[in-house]
Amino acid sequence: MAITGNKITPMLWFDTQAEDAAMFYVSVFADSRIITMSRYGKDAPGPEGTVMVVSFEIEGQRFTALNGGPVFTISEAVSFVVNCETQGEVDSYWDALTEGGDPEAQRCGWLKDKFGVSWQIVPTALPDYVGGSDTEGAQRAMQAMLTMKKLDIAALQRAYDGVEAAF
């Protein structure tokens, strides 16, 4: 079978949780699906019949998850950015992805999910606030963002506008 889809596909290395992770991610994102799942055969490095590789797609982006054993672990050095148009989207993704995750790894829109994968749940308006033409407003928005775990679009807007202390 030929590989089709994205030219570059992120590969996530798990000990034994590749299938669980892929199933979780496709449950969180509406436009997603499992593409293929292959299992270890007899005399393979993993237990026969267990999942070896899962190929899945989220919002048109292909991913591959591998059950490769405990040799390597996922780190915060790589994260996936989820661009959100509304606070409702921010809230929905944040709530789903933080469930069972690491609460100590939540800051400025970043989180670590229950599989150790890092995500950034980012309002598409964020650059307008922290990089806007009003430099004082941008500083206020940046200071407000630095106090947040989950990003709050309305609070960032208020900070940028100088309407009230948003942090």
The beta-strand count equals 7
Distance between the termini: 53 Å
Main β sheet profile: 4 strands, mixed
**Given the helix and strand composition, which structural class is it?**
alpha/beta
Task: Identify the quaternary structure here.
Answer: single chain
Radius of gyration: 19 Å
Shape: elongated
**CATH superfamily membership of the largest domain, which one?**
2,3-Dihydroxybiphenyl 1,2-Dioxygenase, domain 1
Could you name the CATH class of the largest domain? Alpha Beta
If classified by CATH, what would the architecture of the largest domain be? Roll
Mean pLDDT across every amino acid position: 94
Strand order of the largest sheet: 1-4-3-2
Number of domains: 2
What does this protein look like?
With 167 residues, this protein is α/β, with parallel strands linked by helices. The chain has two domains: 1-70, Signal recognition particle alu RNA binding heterodimer, srp9/1, CATH 3.30.720.100; 74-161, 2,3-Dihydroxybiphenyl 1,2-Dioxygenase, domain 1 (Roll), CATH 3.10.180. It is 29% helix and 25% strand. The protein has five helices and seven strands; from the N terminus they run E-H-E-E-E-E-H-E-E-H-H-H. The protein has helices spanning 18-28, 87-98, 126-130, 135-146, 153-161, and strands at 11-14, 32-39, 51-58, 61-67, 79-84, 110-112, 118-123. It has a four-stranded mixed sheet with strand order 1-4-3-2, covered by helices on one side. The protein has a three-stranded mixed sheet with strand order 5-7-6, covered by helices on one side. Strand 6 and strand 7 (118-123) form a beta hairpin. It is elongated, with a radius of gyration of 19 Å.
